[in-house]
Specification:
The chain is of the alpha+beta class. Helices cover about 25% and strands about 20% of the residues. The termini are far apart.
């Protein structure tokens, strides 16, 4: 089977929890948080799957006043560096554009150079400097934004040469988005 991006079904939750624990071994979401994300943001939770095997996922909030937040982007460690994060981001950004979202925000660990490069390539720009202790002591983050109403923003499908995100030290976002 070939991989495809889809909305998960309830039976995917154990595999999603397993994938999250592999992608974020130091700080996986508890199962109940993933369950709540599934229930709350179901149409904004995408998985990259080959049959029942999940290789990546992305979660965004429902738009509020035309603004959405990317909460998490996770890729299986053995699939990182293959452009899967870029594919998930492109698909979600295309969906958000169709929903008339005009701004997308996310946070990223400042030490995650590949993820920062991916987001910059997709048109995200930093909001200020590194936000110290954003998620608690020692949990610094870069806040980034993408203006989807900007006609200069890159199209949702990016060229294959774009860098792909790997997760080495923290989530793209987190369970507590900055409103």
């Amino acid at each position: 089977m070939s991989m495809r991006i889809r909305i998960p079904v309830e039976n995917d939750l154990p595999a999603l929890a397993h994938l999250d624990a592999e992608a974020f071994p130091a700080e996986p979401y508890p199962f109940y948080v993933l369950r709540q994300f599934f229930d709350l943001y179901h149409d904004h939770l995408l998985v990259l799957a080959d049959g029942d095997t999940l290789y990546g996922y992305i979660i965004a909030t429902w738009p509020r006043n035309g603004v959405s937040w990317i909460l998490s982007l996770g890729i299986a460690p053995d699939r990182q560096g293959q452009g899967l994060g870029r594919l998930l981001m492109a698909e979600l950004l295309m969906q958000l554009r169709s929903e008339r979202v005009h701004k997308v925000h996310l946070t990223v660990d400042p030490d995650n150079d590949r993820a920062v490069a991916l987001y910059r390539h997709l048109g995200f720009t930093p909001i200020g400097d590194v936000h110290k202790d954003y998620f608690g002591p020692g949990e610094h983050r870069i806040l980034m934004t993408l203006d989807l109403s900007d006609s200069t923003a890159p199209p949702p499908k990016t060229p294959p040469s774009a860098p792909s995100a790997t997760v080495k030290s923290g989530r793209t976002g987190g369970p507590r988005p900055f409103w």
